Amino acid sequence: MSISYTVRHATHPADSRNYDTAKLREHFLIEQLFEADTVHATYTLHDRLVVGGAHPVGQPLKLESFPTLRSEYFLDRREIGIINVGAAGSVTVDGEIYELAPKEALYIGKGAKEIYFNTSEAGKALYYFNSAPAHHTYPTRKVSLSEAETVELGALENSNHRIIRKVLINSVVETCQLQMGITELQPGSVWNTMPAHTHDRRMEAYFYFELPEDQAVCHFMGEPEETRHLWVKNNQAIISPPWSIHSGAGTSNYTFIWGMAGENLDYNDMDKVAPTDLK
Fold this sequence. Notes:
This protein is mainly beta and about 280 residues long. Helix content is about 5%, strand content about 45%.
């Protein structure tokens, strides 16, 4: 089996207040996403999202089910969003090939069976994915950056000039609950998602990439009145519970992918927290 998986239990905010750095990293940081000829998957009980990565080098990698899912195929009761974060590559879905340029996305609905992450020239294609439970089958669809809903926010004066590309969101593609997008920090800017916010009706995962190997991002989490932080490297991800803020500042500009699962598809359903109210 080419898939390696771990399970993370949901956490209560009152309990997390007692975590030291090692415990915070154990529960919320995903350090290993890409390994040659392996699919890595982390199953979190926060909205039962699966966060994963695939790095095919010698041969295509099949997206296989694993015991926790209790299903013959990975997508028997799930949907998945895949974003190519490496060189140009392709994904095969039940015999049909979908070419993915860097940062292009692919949505695959419930019921698809044979899914392969294909190799690319020099084995440099990297596929990041989020998967959530699904109640209905929506069509498989590729989304290019030109099709994304794109907004520009922030300003260089506040060190948070960023471009948000909503690639797998209900205004672009039909999904059951999964939403994904790409936020690119512009040169000279380091803060993302500021002012911070929470959203009780869905959780989120952050995947940081395009970060120089000698740089890092300080990811802030926790309740607004009881914040914590984790230092994150390139190609690592964070699990963000519904009760937690999710914001970060890097020692360089970078790009990150946000993925959400929960009971609604309203992107603006959030409770903002002013910077002066954070503790």
